[in-house]
Amino acid sequence: MSRKLELYKVVKIGLKAMKRAKLPLYWSKYSRKDYTIPQHIMLIVLAQYVGSIERMLQIVQEMRKIKRVMRLNKIPHKSTISRELRRIPELWIRIVLREIVKVVGIPSKFAVDSTGIQISYRSYYYTVRIGRKARREGVKLHAAVDIERKLITNAVVTKWHANDSPYLIPLLKEERVKRSVC
Q1: Is residue 176 very low, low, confident or very high in pLDDT (cuts 50, 70, 90)?
Q2: Where in the chain are the domains?
Q3: What mean pLDDT value characterizes the chain?
Q4: Closest CA to 60 of 116, 115, 50
């Protein structure tokens, strides 16, 4: 299966999962209504799947099929995606990931790792340069990743300074439970 066809399949599965979970379309009735919450969640999942927000936006721009399925009239800016990453509850992203793993299959080889995601609007180095007190703030994503398909199968989002070790065993236990079920 080609990479782009696989991305299309991931988007369709994720959107169906969010429809079943009955997630709200917007944060408020007063929202601008440019993008829905399910669209943001799918863009975040795709960004994790392809490796970066910039690459994801490039792929979505190129693939009309994905834009049509997600009902995107315009492509959001990368800052919009990173802002929504702070707002969206971890549980909603996990719902999508679990459904994708159910359809795509349980990985035979997976790795567990974590990465920090900066969520401030200014660069840390820019803040230092202009003479303000620089704070590193953000979230940390602890993820179990299918090595063969390059797909996140399970994830936990914590505060920036969280240690990795408390989340290793829960991620491994959930992978073991998934394997025994199938």
Answers
A1: low
A2: 3-101, 106-181
A3: 79
A4: 50
